[in-house]
Amino acid sequence: MSYTENWYRLDNAAKIIPSTAVGADTRVFRIACELKENVDPDVLQDALDSVMEEFPYMDCCLRRGVFWYYLDRLHERPLVEPENRPALSAIYIPGHKSHLFRVSYFQRRINLEMFHVLSDGTGGFTFLKHLLTEYIVLKYGLEREKYVDDTSSASDKERDAFKQYEKKLRTVQNPVKWVKKIFATSAYQLRGIKDENLELHLIEGTVPVAGMLEIAHNYGTTIGILSVSLFIESVIREMDLKERKKKIVFSVPVNLRQFFDSPTVRNFYAVMLIKYDPQMYDGSFRSIIDTVSRVFDENLKEERVLYEMSDYTSLENNLLIRLCPLFLKDIGVWRMSYMRGRGITSSISNLGKIDMPDEIGCHISKFAAFMACKTVFVCISTFEDKMVFGITSPFRKHMLALNFFRNLAKMGIQAEIAGNDYDAEEKDNADMSEMQDIGQGE
What we know:
By secondary structure, this protein is α+β, with helices and mostly antiparallel strands. It has two domains: 7-164, Chloramphenicol Acetyltransferase, CATH 3.30.559.10; 168-439, 2-Layer Sandwich (Chloramphenicol Acetyltransferase), CATH 3.30.559.30. Helix content is 36%, strand content 21%. The chain contains 16 helices and 15 strands. The chain has helices at residues 17-20, 41-54, 121-140, 144-147, 154-157, 161-164, 175-184, 209-218, 223-236, 285-299, 302-316, 319-323, 326-341, 358-361, 399-410, 430-439, and strands at 7-9, 28-35, 60-64, 69-73, 81-82, 101-106, 109-115, 201-208, 248-255, 269-276, 346-353, 364-371, 377-383, 386-393, 416-419. The strands form three sheets. It has a seven-stranded mixed β-sheet. A hairpin with a 2-residue loop joins strand 6 and strand 7. Helix 2 packs across helix 3 and helix 9 crosses helix 10 (285-299). The longest helix is centred in the first third of the chain and has 20 residues, at 121-140. The protein is globular.
């Protein structure tokens, strides 16, 4: 597809997103970069203007068609703005022609928020890394050609990778069986009193990479598996004996670029489900690690990933579904999303290590990522010696996060805790205060 196109079909993963953006779950993700100096908004605007020429695909709004949503080119200049609204606020407003991302700043922070229709976390990071590089080059007078070296074209970045590799996915699945599988699945659900303003609560826990690596090596595993296992144990601590009859299920997005050669900034991921039976828990953390490791090994194989992806493409390519009017698709997709949510306890997305050239990275302190959600969503991002757990929750109390940071503290890992709970001293938010005390080693 040429970058001169004026409209784009939604990719396979994006098709279900507009119908499921309801209430606090705005389907918006945030990637934040903390610099070592305060942000210069004028330079940031110049950087954004320049980067938009490399990413014309980002200059789109979402429109309704007869059968599907689609992306329409705006040909408008996006403006950076001071952070003046709650994090992860809705970006897509039906009927409004506006960009599907926003760039804001506050003191030393640059925030990129994006509607998931446009891109996934990896694509969002690609865009933000280009923006940061351009900003630092302009701000500090660096030689641009040394740091802006991108071999992929604009058309490569905006290509629909699901379509590109569609032939590999035609291990045709039965869509009826897939729908039945969704409705038959049930999992333990996290509970709590939700924010009365439908605003999301963000917790940012920064830990040393070296400490996490040491613990992972002691258990003979990876940081990703260690993190999922720690969160599973944190859920178990909240369950009574009756509730332990239900399985704990974590949804883990898998970046498909590790299996297919694609520089796309559009959505290109599959979802892996990590299931753990709490009745197997004998008090030993090793019992969780071993189970999670086995599930990762079984699922992170190309043939298994292709099989899971084929479930979605079989639905998309079903003739009856394709001919169904959009308003009926909206109802059906929302219902399926609701039922699928009953089969998931929480979600964890490991965005991996973020690499920047030394002359650019020396101006950056850390990165953090967050995802809007109906329940609790954890994003992990790593830059140099800092690993950040970005935990998003619609609940007023944060017991899962509290248990997680307690577990880390017992293992000798002190976390630097920050959040957007301004009433953390009140009784309802005592867990936030306790997390901060844990982070200080008290």
